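Run log, item B.
One chain of 258 residues. Sequence copied directly from the ordering sheet:
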Amino acid sequence: MENTRTYYKSQKEFRVFVASTFSDLVRHRRMGEKKAFSELLLKTLPQVNRYIVKRLNTAISKGNLPQGKYRPADFVDQLFITAYDHFDEVKNEKDLYPWLFKKADELLEDKIVDEEFDEVFFQNIDDFSKPAWDAMEEKFSTDGDGDLVMMEEMDDISYGNKDYILNHVFVEDDNNEMIAKLDREWGEENIRKHAEMVLYHLPLPMRTIYELATEHHFNVEEIAEIRNQSLQEVKQLLEDARKALKTSFYNRDKEINQ
């Protein structure tokens, strides 16, 4: 739990730092100082880069992008150009952080081919047997996202933290007993793997919105702006993602203990 609190604090402090760069970025751009603008902007991008890396890896592993054609650096380089050319869209310092994610998201959406919605998985998540879960996890571990996670992903102290994962899935107070049970009986590694596997199989918009909310701590209004979606759409997709994860934890735990 302490690691989770530390992570939230570090994320908040980083957003404050990004906001503090706004006036200098405005000045560099007004003066035509592209090098100084880019050097300062680079300091604001660690979490944006993490977002790009994760989305790119998942898109490649699911076949929405060809292997070897794009690198995270390609999108970051384009983001520098986009940010410099369109920086006047940022009206104030508090808008800078979500705006950077919005521009990164637009660059990614322009390249990533829409995936087919795995309706069988989403609609039948209640009925998965233990052998089905185990087979899916084995395939995910060998063929899916696991082999593609780059080292940048491991720098975040929230990565794999069981408190961080479960507190976002089981948000109601009456779920404390279930959280304690999963913590006690599953262990950190199994909790992390299961959550990643379920998210991997969710529709791209649902997965992206959930990760923007839980990993990058944007509120629903900011996510709606980043994703160019309505507030109601974002709320519904976030609710659906949490429901899918919660259902999967409950049902798989029940299967394990039968």
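Observations after the first pass:
- The two ends are 30 Å apart (CA to CA).
- The first helix runs from residue 2 to 20.
Flagged for discussion on Thursday.
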